[in-house]
Amino acid sequence: MKMEIVNTKWIATVASIWIQSSVGASYTFGIYSSILKSSQGYDQSTLDTVSVFKDIGANAGILSGLLYSAFTLQNNRRRLGVFAGPCVVLLAGAIQSFLGYFVMWASVVGLIRRLPVAVMCFFTWMAAHAQTFSNTTNVVSGVHNFGDYGGTIVGIMKGFLGLSGAILIQLYQTVCNGDPGTFLLLLALTPTLVSLLFMSLVRNYDTNTKDDKKYLNAFSAVSLIIAAYLTIIIILENISSLSSLARIITFTVLLLLVASPLGIAVRAHREDSDRYAQALLEQRGSKQNPVISSEICKAEDSIEYHELPSEEGQAKPASDDKRLSDEGNMNLLQALCSVNFWLLFIAMFCGLGSGLAMINNISQIGESLGYTATERNSLVSLLSIWNFLGRFGAGFVSDIFLHRGGWARPLFVAVTLAIMTIGHTIVAAGFSKNLYLGSVLVGVAYGSQWSLMPTITSEIFGVGHMGTIFNTIAIASPVGSYTFSVRVIGFIYDKVGSGENNTCFGSRCFMLSFMIMASVAFFGVLVALLLFFRTRRFYKSVVFRRLQNL
Q1: Of 64, 299, 326, 371, whose CB is crowded by the most CB atoms within 10 A?
Q2: Number of other CB atoms surrounding residue 275 within 10 Å
Q3: Are the C-beta atoms of 9 and 207 separated by less than 8 Å?
């Protein structure tokens, strides 16, 4: 019985949550960037170059998608066992994470000679790139295991990844005693050890029960509690400094909260087992052959899980609907040749690109508007919470509308881009305390798009090559960030800056930049609406019909 509970999609989900909670080291760059700059003798421009490679590594995950698809297909054909499929991809990510951060730590503390800038950029890219391997595995496996609630499970996985930065910062403040060099070593060890410990539990299961949503909601509730708890800690830290004992206590409570999904998994498995036993007794009682549904007890990898089920008792779908269904099972090359792929890519360029540009420049924007250092630090910390709320909320809400009325999910991309347009406009306005409101709107919208994009990918292009396709679309984020951060914000700031070291103060420093980004985000609204109208029939004829046939 103990082995039975280990080999379930619920334990796989818990393992994915724990891994996601530890691998967001790329979000902590602000903690160790100062010692990286001073120990390596970098100027600000060089440090920004290193940061760009960090962003590219964290967002360009095509290799992880290809590896996941290759090993999942191979495992499906040959039944390679536990150490195949998702496990191999997680192992590759763990190795990259350790090598990247360990070499960075060794260079910072002087264990090895100072690295050339190009070499440091490579290892920074490698360390951040490891995140895509964990993210791809956990998101795609989650969609495979809970395909009927793809938005919710993607929101959970993306949400815990967003919270992981704040969790790792709490670990830093508790263990490292303010030493960012030690934190780099901690980043080399923590995500790697967590991935190695739990990677064998992350697998794909072809199971489906009517109570999946109830327990997914329980996982969602835990993530909301953790986010609220972290918000309280961040606020307390900005009001007064916490003692070492207080930090140990608060971090212990945080670990207990992160561990709590295990109890949910145990309850879910117990209910599934009771339901199976009851069904078996009823079948024996009616003297029928105990034919056990593969949807309850068969746990195996299968990329065909997400296809529209066929029922012999029903008439064959119309040829148009069959064509729409076939379009939902594409590889990367087929997706690249479709209009829907490029519409989604352009929408993400407008949203993720401009959103990341705002997030990367939030401290400098606050400085130009006269915010204190404490206020700027609070904005940076709180952005991770708004990011989480968007990642979690968009998947959850869009699932509700999809299940109740067949609403095509691209409509919610348009809504979030509209919210981002308002957020950029508020930042451009420059009125008193505008960043607090603007950062909430942009942060929630940015996080929402990270949840919606992978789910839409799985629904429009299919789950078989989902990892490769959504990671290709994710390239829009660093491309957009570079375009808006360097070619728009940086260029205009240098033009209007006139103070010492070309500094700038006042709303004029960023007003034009954010008006441009607001216009781009509004253009993204139009693109997302076009995608909505193009896919509306597909969602009604294929996705919604499949959900109704459950």
Answers
A1: 64
A2: 14
A3: yes
Angle formed by the axes of helices 150-175 and 9-20, nearest 10°: 40
How far apart are alpha carbons 411 and 115 in whole angstroms? 47
Paired tokens of 39: 């120990």
* H runs (alpha helix) in 146-179: 150-175
8: left (phi over 0), alpha (psi -120 to 50) or beta: beta
Cα distance from N-terminal residue to C-terminal residue, the chain: 28
Contacts of residue 328, defined as CB under 8 A and 6 or more positions apart, other chains included, come to 306, 307, 308, 459, 460, 461, 462, 538, 542
Can you tell me the distance from the alpha carbon of 272 to that of 387, in angstroms, rounded to the nearest whole number? 34
Sign of CA dihedral 76, 78, 82, 86: negative
Residue 538: exposed, middle, or buried by beta-carbon count in 10 A (0-12, 13-18, 19+)? buried
This prediction's pTM: 0.81
* Per-residue model confidence as pLDDT tens digits over 46-86: 777 788 888 889 988 899 999 998 887 666 555 555 556 79
Answer yes or no: are the C-beta atoms of 94 and 196 closer than 8 Å: yes
Measured between alpha carbons, how far is 142 from 157 in angstroms, rounded to an integer?
Answer: 8
In 3D space, the residue among 266, 143, 281, 133 whose CA is nearest the CA of residue 206 turns out to be 143
Closest CA to 385 of 339, 329, 342, 444: 444
